[in-house]
Amino acid sequence: MQTEATHFSPLSRWLGRAAALAPCLAVMGLLTIALVRIARAVGDSAGLALFGLAGWLGWIASDLVSGIVHWLCDRYGDERTPVIGPLVIAPFREHHVDPQILARKDFFDAASSNAWLSLSVLVPWVAFGPPLEGALAIFLAGFAVSLGAGVFLTNTFHQWAHQANPPRAARWLQVLRVAISPERHARHHASGDAAYCVTTGFCNPALDRWRVFERLERATALFTPHRNRSHG
Questions:
Q1: Is residue 179 over pLDDT 80?
Q2: Which residue of 7, 66, 107, 160 pairs with 166 in a disulfide if CB–CB is 3.0 to 4.6 A?
């Protein structure tokens, strides 16, 4: 049995690495295709401004998505939940037990789980999206690309918030509030019931002030009486 385990171990490691690389490379390729299409369609400064507005809104939406997913993963299901358990829930739960586990991963290992969610946005738009003609089409394209990119990079930004020495570019993005800073993310680990958004943290003040997730949890308590609470 020892010989057999040794024989299959390298293959298992290779398959695991391929499973992390494939979705990330697919997202990068689709983002490149989408940006080239948009660049060809944006013909003047008005179109560029519209694309910028859509990109900003898409980036905020990605932060909101990160908060919703984080809250769901902390509160419901577990690592054994079919499909999403090992792919999505487990990474959130394990980083509450060991906050530095995310910081020790490389880019592809950290980003691969979110890459699948990003592909669910980018694949339909790139494959079946309407021609980029007119202001509305450019706006929707900018929103979709920004949302997809933000979702894809969420775990990287989250990772930077846990690293003692993140890349220099990370610090600039944190100062500009494009990426969540360690200080803003620390609120979540301090309480476990706040600051769920981990892309930029932009949505956290409003969500916490209005107790959105607390109210959602109360509203769903009748339907999920045995919810799993996982404080960070």
A1: yes
A2: 160
The residue type of 107 is F
**Distance between CA atoms of residues 122 and 34, nearest Å:** 8
Residue 61 has pLDDT above 90, yes or no: yes
pTM of the complete model: 0.90
Confidence of residue 195 (pLDDT cuts 50, 70, 90): very high
Domain boundaries, the chain: 2-220
Report which of 101, 75, 78, 112 is spatially closest to residue 193, judged by C-alpha positions: 75
Find the angle CA(99)-CA(102)-CA(104) to the nearest 5 degrees: 110
Please state, in angstroms and rounded to a whole number, the distance separating the CA atoms of residues 176 and 52: 16
Q: Which amino acid is at 129?
A: G
Exposed/middle/buried for 48, CB within 10 Å: 0-12, 13-18, 19+? Answer: middle
Nearest to 87 by CA among 77, 96, 75: 77
Per-residue pLDDT of 110-158, as tens digits, reads 999 899 999 999 999 898 888 898 999 999 999 999 999 999 999 999 9
Token output for 158: 């989250």
d(CA 68, CA 62): 10
Residue with tokens 């490149």: 32
